[in-house]
Design a protein that fits this description.
The protein has 259 residues and is α/β, with parallel strands linked by helices. The protein has 2 domains: 161 residues, Aconitase, domain 3; 80 residues, Aconitase, Domain 2. It is 32% helix and 18% strand. The chain has 9 helices and 11 strands. The longest helix has 17 residues.
């Protein structure tokens, strides 16, 4: 039976199928972590005597509570609140204790988590990607199934590398025609949201297709998928093509050599 892009990715990651009484158990290829939604999750697994199941499939960065101004002469960074400083220091300690790779203050890899994953080649077609942030849908531009999760779910993925999920429905949005000069991916996303309504995508993963979508560069596609949640969708996806392959080629964690 033919499958949508979403169904192909979902079905290849099901560890235990969904039943009437229980959600599916879904394997997670990449878990991105930041300082805001992870402290309680690390505390929870440690309280149970557990460790991070797959540190090699977990990557952390400092990006939500970090000051943008430089440190003062004493090396003290101008955090907005003491809580922000505590979040950053807690993530640093948790990653060191569990062997999780962290793009910290001195790392050239550090950046906005939704951009850093693709830029480093961590995000790739056919993967399942989760992060404790709703805009994780951004990664769907690469043909990945990517969505945000809550803090308790962050803990579940840290401990098991799996997630309990009910399978969403799928919706295809086709945008035909050529985009006029000055029309961007964000304009496309806003037009789709205007048509669907802010709750029109609730319960769905939106698959974007059509000439206008194919004409977008990867940054434009990331914007479209990022904004899927503004229509209430669980995630957005775009099938990978040569544009995707060319953008990922040569990036730090992307596969090298012939296919």
């Amino acid at each position: 039976m033919p499958e949508t892009l979403f169904e192909k990715v979902w079905n290849r990651h099901v560890v235990q199928a969904e039943t009437h009484d229980a959600p599916a158990v879904l394997y997670v290829d990449l878990h991105l972590v930041h300082e805001v939604t992870s402290p309680q999750a690390f505390s929870e697994i440690e309280s149970r005597g557990l460790t991070v199941r797959r540190p090699d499939r977990t990557f952390a960065t400092l990006d939500h509570s970090t000051p943008t101004l430089p440190a003062d002469a004493s090396g003290e960074r101008p955090y907005y609140t003491p809580a922000s400083k505590a979040q950053v220091e807690t993530l640093e300690a948790n990653c060191a204790r569990h062997g999780v790779s962290l793009a910290g203050w001195d790392s050239a890899d550090r950046g906005v988590v939704h951009v850093m994953g693709p830029e480093l080649g961590l995000t790739r077609p056919g993967m399942t990607v989760v992060c404790g942030d709703s805009h994780t849908a951004t990664h769907g531009a690469f043909g990945a199934l990517a969505f945000g999760i809550g803090t308790s779910e962050v803990g579940h993925v840290l401990a098991t590398q799996c997630l309990l999920q009910r399978q969403p429905r799928t919706m295809r949005v086709t945008v035909d025609g050529q985009l006029q000069p000055g029309v961007s991916g964000k304009d496309v996303a806003l037009a789709v949201i205007a048509r669907l309504g802010f709750g029109g995508g609730t319960g769905f993963v939106i698959e974007y297709a059509g000439e206008a979508i194919r004409s977008l560069d990867m940054e434009g596609r990331m914007t479209v998928c990022n904004m899927s949640i503004e229509a209430g969708a669980r995630a957005g996806m775009i099938a990978p093509d040569q544009t995707t392959v060319d953008w990922l080629k040569g990036r730090k964690h992307a596969p090298q050599g012939a296919a």
